[in-house]
Design brief:
Layout (H helix, E strand, L loop, with lengths): L56 H4 L15 E4 L14 H6 L10 E4 L9 E4 L1 E2 L1 H9 L3 E4 L17 H6 L1
Parallel strand pairs: 1-2, 2-4, 3-5
Function: Binds to the 23S rRNA.
Keywords: Ribonucleoprotein, Ribosomal protein, RNA-binding, rRNA-binding
Subunit structure: Part of the 50S ribosomal subunit.
């Protein structure tokens, strides 16, 4: 096989439609642009949000102040007080919290907050602890173990493949 033998796959290249080459071509005279009007003229059309001169949606919306942080991490929150009646021999893990319906979503990291009192020593595994929660757990004779949470950034391509940043971390 030589360079001059290379051909694209059959059917992968279609000849471009030749516009404005007589009415026999099917795209003659107005070249598929209809009769007159702004969109028939050469050059760029009106801007993306143009609504024919009507006050456009972008202008009708209230002005949004501030910004939203796209790197913000939302946590499922559990207070120490809700773990007061937890059996001391059982470890507190995200899975066990989900089974007992203390948290609803398993795709979110769990944060333990210090509201309420804890009497028995518990081994608690969570992604984050507030300072007061950690203090109350250790005062009761338990352990606060931090779990790692890898933020799953969606792929910027259209496919389901993981982004390179996540591939390098794992």
């Amino acid at each position: 096989m030589k360079l001059h033998d290379l051909r694209p796959a059959e059917g992968s290249h279609r000849k471009s439609k030749r516009i404005g080459r007589g009415h026999g071509s099917g795209k003659g005279k107005t070249g598929g642009k209809g009769m007159m009007g702004q969109k028939a003229r050469s050059g760029p059309g009106p801007y993306r949000t143009f609504e024919g001169g009507q006050n456009r949606l972008v202008k009708r919306m209230p002005f949004k102040r501030g910004f939203t942080n796209k790197f913000r991490v939302e946590y499922e929150v559990v207070n120490v007080g809700s773990l007061a009646d937890w059996p001391a021999e059982l470890e507190v893990t995200p899975e066990s919290l989900l089974d007992r319906r203390l948290v609803r979503r398993k795709k979110m990291p769990i944060k333990i907050l210090g509201d309420g009192e804890l009497s028995q020593p518990l081994v608690i595994k969570a992604h984050k602890f507030s300072a007061s929660a950690r203090q109350k757990i250790e005062a009761a004779g338990g352990k606060a173990i931090d779990l790692t949470w890898v933020v799953e950034r969606p792929s910027r391509s259209r496919g389901p493949n993981p982004s390179m940043r996540n591939a390098l971390q794992s």
